[in-house]
Design brief:
single chain, about 230 residues, alpha+beta, Gyrase A, domain 2, four-stranded antiparallel β-sheet, 8 helices, 4 strands, about 15% strand, binds flavin-adenine dinucleotide
């Protein structure tokens, strides 16, 4: 049985036209892309293109003030898109509860799942007995899946209709893949809940990966997020 681990790949990220911004306002910033756009949006509210206050003259200082004031709507202008692999259908069920994300998910009706990989819950990654048990269940599920697809297509069902019926036996740990987009305010909201000790272990691990990627492109937007998950007790 193939067990896979999660991977998140930053596919898309909002860019910012600093030349146009400077031409229109005379304002410049030490940041680029989504972080510069958030600052521009905030300054546009008050037309505050000058920087008399040293504390908010830099992008990190300006956004720190925005976060303190919970003026988070300015973070909605920039978005980040990821291609995610090696996560389970359980994780997808939880993530899809966040209503401000856009998802494009591998179709279990069109894609042959007879060799679908599985995702171990983090708690049993190194647990020999549990791993073996889940491996057996996955093998059995695949075998029934294959039998159902064969029988149903022989009876005349189109392949996608046979697969949509046969997927009923696939376990929650079946791997899925998807493209997911959220704006920066949306990601902050998701990560506040899922980069948290009370969250399910797999989605918490996923949240840690997303946060690490977002910190690469937007460290100032996530400057108030902890290195370890939020919270003190599950
Ligand atoms: C630790 C944990 C355990 C959970 N356990 C369960 C569980 O057992 N069962 C279960 O069903 N879910 C569970 N959830 C999911 C949870 O209930 C939410 O569905 C999920 O966290 C998404 O949050 P949300 O609905 O606040 O926000 P989102 O859908 O991400 O929306 C963000 C914000 O937009 C606003 N908003 C969005 N839609 C509306 C609306 N229609 N009306 C008004 N305001 C809106 C709200 O302010 C909301 O907080 C759990 C989540 C966590 C983190």
């Amino acid at each position: 049985m193939t067990f896979v681990t999660p991977a998140v790949h930053l596919l898309g990220w909002t860019t910012f036209n600093a030349t146009v911004a400077e031409k229109l306002t005379g304002w410049t910033t030490d940041a680029v892309d989504g972080q510069a756009l958030a600052e521009f949006a905030g300054r546009a509210c008050y037309q505050s293109w000058r920087k008399p206050n040293p504390a908010t003259a830099s992008n990190v200082g300006y956004l720190a003030n925005i976060l303190r004031q919970q003026h988070e709507s300015v973070l909605e202008h920039g978005s980040a898109t990821f291609y995610v692999t090696g996560v389970s259908r359980s994780l997808l069920a939880e993530l899809s509860r966040h209503r401000h994300i856009s998802l494009s998910v591998l179709s279990q009706r069109y894609v042959d799942e007879s060799k679908a990989a599985m995702v171990l819950p983090p708690a049993v990654t190194d647990h020999f007995t549990a791993k073996a048990g889940l491996g057996n269940i996955a093998a059995d599920a695949r075998s029934v899946y294959n039998a159902m697809v064969t029988v149903l297509t022989e009876e005349g069902l189109e392949r996608k209709h046979a697969r949509e019926a046969a997927r009923a036996v696939l376990p929650n740990m079946t791997e899925t893949r998807f493209v997911v987009t959220a704006n920066l305010r949306g990601w902050r909201d998701i990560l506040r809940r899922r980069w948290h000790v009370a969250a399910d272990a797999e989605i918490r691990r996923f949240a840690g990966l997303i946060l690490a990627e977002l910190r690469q492109v937007a460290p100032n937007v996530f400057q108030d997020f902890p290195a370890e998950p939020f919270g003190t007790g599950a």
